[in-house]
């Protein structure tokens, strides 16, 4: 599948989570969250300690968040990526987009081996969703 097809499949979803969401508006974990908001997407921030980010209830992990997610954007250190892929797979999440700098070769390979649509090493969702600072 081409990268364009992978991105289209990802964006066709209706519910998303940002794993590694941040309170700090200068960090990519916050910018990615705001890009989804600017695009009018339904999303949940995932952060191990923060209860609210950008006015949205945040959850410590995917398993504790209510509902299901069509896709997740990962904005964490690469060392966390493998456990995130495993948790996503257990929850039936099919689409994982590793934002630049968050990808781990092992996590990318594992996600693909599990049959997930994995986007890595390519464009950032900020570009794709045409994010602008506000």
Give an overview in words.
The chain is α/β, with parallel strands linked by helices and 134 residues long. The protein has one domain (3-128): Rossmann fold (3-Layer(aba) Sandwich), CATH 3.40.50. The chain contains 5 helices and 7 strands, in the order H-E-H-E-E-E-E-H-E-H-E-H. The chain has helices at residues 3-11, 28-38, 78-90, 105-113, 125-128, and strands at 15-19, 42-46, 52-53, 56-57, 71-74, 95-98, 117-119. The strands form 2 sheets. It has a 5-stranded parallel β-sheet with strand order 2-1-5-6-7, sandwiched between helices. Strands 3-4 form a two-stranded antiparallel sheet. Helix 3 runs parallel beside helix 4. The radius of gyration is 13 Å and the shape is globular. 40% of the residues are buried. The mean pLDDT is 94.
């Amino acid at each position: 599948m081409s990268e364009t097809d992978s991105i289209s499949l990802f964006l066709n979803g209706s519910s998303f989570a940002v794993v590694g969401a941040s309170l700090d508006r200068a960090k990519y974990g916050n910018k990615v969250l705001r890009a989804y908001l600017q695009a009018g997407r339904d999303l949940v921030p995932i952060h191990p300690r923060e209860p609210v980010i950008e006015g949205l209830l945040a959850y410590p992990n995917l398993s504790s968040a209510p509902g299901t997610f069509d896709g997740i954007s990962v904005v964490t250190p690469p060392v966390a990526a493998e456990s995130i892929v495993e948790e996503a797979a257990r929850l039936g999440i099919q689409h994982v987009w590793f934002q630049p700098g968050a990808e781990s070769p092992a996590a990318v390979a594992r996600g693909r081996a599990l049959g997930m649509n994995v986007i890595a090493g390519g464009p950032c969702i900020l570009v794709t969703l045409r994010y602008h600072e506000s």
